[in-house]
Amino acid sequence: MLYAYLPAFFVALLLSWSACVVVRRMAPRFGLVDKPGERKIHTAPIPTGGGLGIWFGIVVPFAVAQFALFLFLRSESLQARLPETVALHLDGFWFRSGQLWMLLGLGSILVILGTLDDRFNLNWKLRIGVQAVIASLAVYCGWRLAFEACPDWLACILSVFWIVGLINSFNMLDNMNGLSAGVAAICTAFLAAVMMFAPNPLSQQPQFFVAGFLIVLFGALAGFLLHNNPFRAKLFMGDGGAYFIGFLLATTTLSATFSGGEESRQTIFVPLLILAVPLYDTATVVLIRLRSGKSPFVGDKNHFSHRLVDLGLTKTQAVLTVYLATAICCLGSLLLYQADFFGASLIFLQTLLVLLLVAIIEHTGRGR
Question: Distance between CA atoms of 208 and 238, rounded to whole angstroms?
Fold first, then answer.
């Protein structure tokens, strides 16, 4: 199935890149420009709204695929031209398509919310309120935690917090060129790999549907990164893009099956390993703000990347360091399905030690 995913990746990349070109030219006409300021690291106005390009790079390929799927299901002659491994999954794709468009519909609302916030600087209470409503609808539609020992009501509450938390985590992480989108791309790539290599315990088959969705998301993020990366920035993603990718990663981890069965229950913690760095950044920033008597919803320069710059790194070096830390934490997720409980414990310990090392270095730097 991997060869079938490669065209989807490149189509999403091309569409996202092309849409971002249009956004770069049109954004100033609609006031979507990020101007230098107290908490800004750039020195010249830069168009924002790149999240619209990411959205375009995801929605359009799926819309075309949905139309093609409709045609293939209505024609046996067309089905006969497909590889057998693809034809076998047509009914499954159609069955999951309703869920797919519900997911993209809810995500599109967040893109609109974030874009309006980029333009009009909406009140944080309104933003959190809308995010909570969207998260609640997603949970109601089936995207929620599934723990045997966890009551349904508690699983629903935790799922809402997980979705809202990741939406804001990637928004907070969007503070340097290519940082949030790059970290999201790394996390997405590793999640897709896990879905390809980790079988569903019920069907014992790779989770092709979730993997395919993640590869399209990966392509759209790669297209945007051609406009905004650690070395140059001609377009910012904006809150719309950060909300969108945070929501998609949150719901994807809830829709995927990470349980490896009775012998490897530790695999349910794969999302925590893959998303360890964004979660670390959010947790430490909130703690620093609360300790300083500030609101956790008021922006500042206390993020992981900012603290690295304070240690003497350039902005590019700081972003690349965060990339490296993300990849190191993600690597362990590929081994969880092959490890026993003792091996899994070592993987978790390694991830915690990496984050602890980062925290010690940061604290030493701030003390100086």
Answer: 31
